[in-house]
């Protein structure tokens, strides 16, 4: 097949990957710009308030996770009526979750006002409100694009919304942390509004109890594993927020920004790989059919993550010293986070857990990782009084985690 034919065949996928890469680079640049004009203590408060989002991850009971797998799986089995019913159910659940999240954010806002918290707390809770409102809505719409493999349209929309966010990113230069909160709040809303007219599956009803149960049965184990993974990735921030200072958390936000930017790679590529894995498995119902997927996904992630992490690792100290001198103390912790990012080459093979609906081992592994982290920092609290040591601990645990994930997924598809 000629190169031009390959380009035409995979044009939609390439555009989607480009849009996410564009988003990754821009997010990192924007984060650096914003952080350069925000005091570490204020940044720490914003990060601490947004951590509340972690505690609300179970509100949808796995429905969104189930959609990501089931649309592609049942579409390959020619069950279009069931697919539409599940989409309807997903939309209904997203509205309920958005309302509940918005109400909880308003309660937090009222608490901060009544207890006399500073303006940065109050405005951060408004940012949390936008996050909790639009995240569930975006999750369902994105699932219909990705599982329907409408990557070309989604890539166009993401590129446009990212460009608008690039323009908004200059607000922190003028307004400091207030500008960041405004820009991020608008970003959540714009992303959803732009997708609505082009979504491949529109809501035609409220869904059904049958679809709800099917989505929860499929998605809840995936939700648990994904939620636990998010908790594990945020263990370091949670520890610093509770046991170190706001300045430490603000300095550590640099590590968070770097990881968030690099994570755009596995997030965007998985959006391509997941429906393809589910479709292949749906056609054969044979785990061994995913063996080639296991090998190719591992190679793809190694080729994408390793060069990106190595380059950022070495240029980061110079970039921060030039653009963000207030955050120089956070550079070493950010470099350790880049080492952690290298262990995310397991993101592709880990798709097999959800595709085969064999999530128990993954849930156990992540749970043990969380327990190990908190056990170590609790026993050696005096030793973990610096953000660098906390970041290195997470890398060490992530490395062990990587070995187990690769081994067990290989066993699933090879036997």
Comma- or semicolon-separated keywords:
mainly alpha; 17 helices; globular
Summarize the structure.
The chain is mainly alpha-helical and about 425 residues long.
Layout of SSEs?
Blueprint: H1 3-9, H2 11-36, H3 40-50, H4 63-76, H5 80-114, H6 119-147, H7 151-168, H8 171-175, H9 177-195, H10 209-233, H11 235-243, H12 246-284, H13 291-323, H14 331-342, H15 347-355, H16 360-379, H17 387-414
Helix pairs in contact: 2-7, 2-12, 3-6, 3-12, 4-5, 4-6, 4-10, 4-12, 5-6, 5-10, 6-9, 7-9, 10-16, 11-17, 12-13, 12-14, 12-15, 13-14, 13-15, 14-17, 15-17, 16-17
Task: Please describe what this structure looks like.
It is a single chain. This protein is mostly helical and 415 residues long. It has 17 helices and no strands. Helix 2 packs antiparallel against helix 12 (246-284), helix 6 packs parallel to helix 9 (177-195) and helix 13 packs across helix 15.
